[in-house]
């Protein structure tokens, strides 16, 4: 980043960020297409409707978490608690719907609200107590992991008393209209969340400050921006989105699995990075993140379809992450 | 820039296709096994059994499982990819039965027989279940413990987790046996260490600190058992009776050295072998029993080299 940009982050970075983002999207999109073509040629079982839908289904949770992570990463922060927050909100939904027997909308509101409140708490710890995001959210990750186990009594909470609950993720509104293309609702939720986040980033003050914080927090502060409040707002928004991920995964499994969640933050960060968002903040797009999440699940599904031994699947996935980020760096160096 | 981009893309695509192309076999019966885990030596032993059956019966098998036993959704994704390959049959060890039901129904509607292994599935879809009776096995561990400590005193359990079927069955199998048969034995603590050696070590040391007069520990899986051994060693305690579960190099060594009194072994190789055998039988339309008990054994210093026992132990 040049000195002129440092001096006036708000004037230039969002424009620059959008341009650079477009290039990175192209790069990521190209990788996705190459993978799709490669796997289709390698196995006739890959490009079937049911498998494509399975890939989309597998992307939904990681995609939503990655969108939540993108917002925080653009501010120059990091959120290690997205996975366990997802689980925590799923457990809360389980308590409201199964233990208290309340109707479905209450469960949905409770999960999203809990996510937003926990996000706000993380944001407050980071902004007001000045604890670095890595440490604050590491602590939060463990707190939530423990609380999920405490509240659920370490047992999965099933949603058998709320028969409409699985519809959130596994039902298909599209399939009802156009039979033969039963895109699971979880995927629609991912696209809605991504659309909303993209709108917030590109068209609202909150989005603008998100980039400003990530480019140069001090400059933003000196220009009179209430940095702390905006930061807390972004963490709260990110937390709310984790709440949506919690609903989608709980609905898919028809249960809140309290021990699940740790490790998911790394998958989401990988999707964000493959999608071209800079871990140092100030640059990134939601579309890139969604493509990044798709690349990860296409890759994993394709390797499984080809019966590649599992240990090698992990090696290939790791290599792809490094290649993607290296390609991004080469592009930036030339730009 | 465009050349570099194209180049990188081409390299990765070629690598992917080249690396996996060779793994595809021709017209053999294909049976994917979706397990509850992968890296643990136990699962590798199940895999070894499955591979042996595949070689004996002339079929192709693949073996996959999630990194941790909490990742229910990742296991579902694996099952879903396995079904997309249109296999002849499928072997499945469910992390959560309920979550897998929609996919198992799909398998059923596509006439793909499902063989449950290790922990079973709460459903009548699987043609059979190949597993260990963990409750009975843990009760045997309790009997051995009682005999070794003279039917009285304090004991503690280090269990891998409180959510999985095996964790619950082994804990309850041990605890209920002690409660009903050995009133003078007091279970002072049950702690959960995620099957992680280090966590289980720390747990053991804290239990030893809290109860210096403790007489015995039961470690409910490989990682827990090794953790107990290490914890007792680090605390420099002697005369504590340790009973483990499963095998593995370290646990076998501890038994040979006399640090561990003995252990319960399942028959992981047998689980893998029987699963593939039952799947092949189901594909051929032969009748299979609804439950195949793959057995368990007590082993200690005296019989660890016995060929019958040695055959089911893994390193």
Question: What can you tell me about this protein's structure?
Answer:
The complex is a heterodimer of chains A (335) and B (315). Helices cover 76% and strands 1% of the residues of chain A. Chain A is mainly α. Chain A has a single domain, classed as ABC transporter involved in vitamin B12 uptake, BtuC, CATH 1.10.3470. In chain A, strands 1-2 form a two-stranded antiparallel sheet. In chain A, helix 3 runs parallel beside helix 10. Chain A is globular, with a radius of gyration of 20 Å. Chain A starts with a helix and ends with a helix. With 315 residues, chain B is an alpha/beta fold. Chain B has two domains: 143 residues, Rossmann fold; 133 residues, 3-Layer(aba) Sandwich (Rossmann fold). In chain B, 48% of the residues lie in helices and 19% in strands. In chain B, helix 2 packs parallel to helix 10, helix 3 runs parallel beside helix 4 and helix 7 packs across helix 8. The longest helix of chain B is centred in the N-terminal third of the chain and has 20 residues. In chain B, 56% of the residues are buried. Chains A and B meet through helix 2, helix 3, helix 11, helix 13 and helix 14 of A and helix 1, strand 2, helix 3 and helix 4 of B.
What structural keywords apply?
heterodimer, A: 335 residues, mainly alpha, ABC transporter involved in vitamin B12 uptake, BtuC, 14 helices, 1% strand, globular, disordered N terminus, B: 315 residues, alpha/beta, Rossmann fold, 2 domains, 6-stranded mixed β-sheet, 12 strands, 19% strand
Query: Total number of β-strand segments of chain A?
Result: 2
SSE sequence of chain A, one letter per element: HHHHHHEHHHHHEHHH
Rg of chain B to the nearest angstrom? 22 Å
Strand order, sheet with most strands of chain B: 2-1-3-4-5-11
Shape of chain B: elongated
Characterize this entry briefly.
The complex is a heterodimer of chains A (335) and B (315). Chain A is an all-alpha fold and 335 residues long. Chain A has helices spanning 3-7, 9-42, 49-74, 82-99, 104-127, 133-152, 167-170, 173-177, 185-203, 205-222, 227-253, 264-274, 286-305, 310-334, and strands spanning 157-158, 255-256.
């Amino acid at each position: 980043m040049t000195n002129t940009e440092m001096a006036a982050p708000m004037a230039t970075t969002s424009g620059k960020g959008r341009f650079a983002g477009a290039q990175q999207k192209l790069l990521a999109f190209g990788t996705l297409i190459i993978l799709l073509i490669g796997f289709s040629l390698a196995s006739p079982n890959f490009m079937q409707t049911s498998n494509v839908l399975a890939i989309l289904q597998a992307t939904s949770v990681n995609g939503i978490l990655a969108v939540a992570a993108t917002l925080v990463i653009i501010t120059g922060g990091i959120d290690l608690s997205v996975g366990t927050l997802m689980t925590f909100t799923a457990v809360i939904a389980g308590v409201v719907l199964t233990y208290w027997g309340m109707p479905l909308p209450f469960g949905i509101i409770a999960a999203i609200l809990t996510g937003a409140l926990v996000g706000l708490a993380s944001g407050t710890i980071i902004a007001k107590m000045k604890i670095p995001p890595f440490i604050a959210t590491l602590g939060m990750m463990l707190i939530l992991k423990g609380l999920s186990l405490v509240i659920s009594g370490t047992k999965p909470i099933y949603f058998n008393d709320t028969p409409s609950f699985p519809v959130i993720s596994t039902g298909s509104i599209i399939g009802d209209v156009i039979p033969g293309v039963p895109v699971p609702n979880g995927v629609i939720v991912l696209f809605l969340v991504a659309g909303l986040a993209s709108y917030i980033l590109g068209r609202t003050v909150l989005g603008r400050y998100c980039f400003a914080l990530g480019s140069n927090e001090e400059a933003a502060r000196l220009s009179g921006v209430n940095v702390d409040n905006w930061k807390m707002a972004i963490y709260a928004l990110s937390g709310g989105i984790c709440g949506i991920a919690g609903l989608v995964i709980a609905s898919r499994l028809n249960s809140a699995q309290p021990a699940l969640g740790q490790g998911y933050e790394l998958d989401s960060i990988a999707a964000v990075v493959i999608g071209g968002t800079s871990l140092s903040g100030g640059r990134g797009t939601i579309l890139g993140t969604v493509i990044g999440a798709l690349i990860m699940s296409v890759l994993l599904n394709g390797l499984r379809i080809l019966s590649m031994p599992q240990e090698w699947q992990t090696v290939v996935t790791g290599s792809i992450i490094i290649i993607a980020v290296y390609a991004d760096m080469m592009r930036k160096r030339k730009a | 820039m465009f050349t570099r981009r194209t180049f990188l893309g081409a390299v990765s695509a070629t690598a992917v296709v080249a690396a996996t192309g060779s793994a595809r076999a021709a017209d053999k019966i294909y049976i994917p096994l979706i397990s509850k885990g992968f890296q643990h030596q136990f699962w590798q032993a199940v895999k070894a059994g499955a591979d042996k059956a595949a070689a004996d019966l002339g079929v192709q098998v693949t073996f996959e499982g999630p990194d941790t036993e909490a990742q229910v959704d990742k296991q579902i994704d694996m099952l879903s990819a396995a079904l997309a390959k249109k296999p002849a049959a499928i072997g499945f060890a469910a992390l959560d039965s309920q979550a897998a039901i929609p996919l198992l129904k799909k398998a059923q509607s596509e006439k793909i027989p499902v063989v449950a292994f290790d922990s079973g599935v709460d459903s009548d879809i699987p043609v059979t279940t190949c597993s260990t009776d963990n409750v009975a096995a843990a009760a045997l561990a309790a009997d051995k413990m009682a005999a070794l400590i003279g039917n009285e005193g304090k004991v503690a359990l280090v269990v891998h987790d409180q959510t999985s079927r095996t964790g619950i069955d082994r804990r309850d199998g041990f605890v209920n046996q002690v409660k009903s048969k050995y009133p003078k034995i007091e279970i002072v603590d049950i702690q959960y260490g995620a099957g992680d050696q280090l966590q289980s070590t720390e747990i053991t040391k804290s239990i030893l600190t809290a109860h210096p007069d403790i007489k015995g520990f039961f470690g409910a899986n490989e990682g827990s058992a090794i953790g107990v051994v290490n914890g007792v060693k680090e605390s420099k305690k002697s005369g504590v009776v340790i009973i483990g579960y499963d095998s593995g190099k370290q646990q076998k060594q501890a038994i040979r050295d006399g640090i561990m009194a003995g252990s319960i072994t399942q028959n992981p190789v047998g689980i893998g072998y029987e699963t593939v055998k039952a799947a092949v039988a189901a594909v051929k339309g032969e009748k299979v029993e609804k439950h195949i008990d793959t057995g368990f054994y007590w082993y200690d210093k005296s019989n660890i080299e016995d060929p019958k026992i040695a055959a089911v132990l893994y390193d």
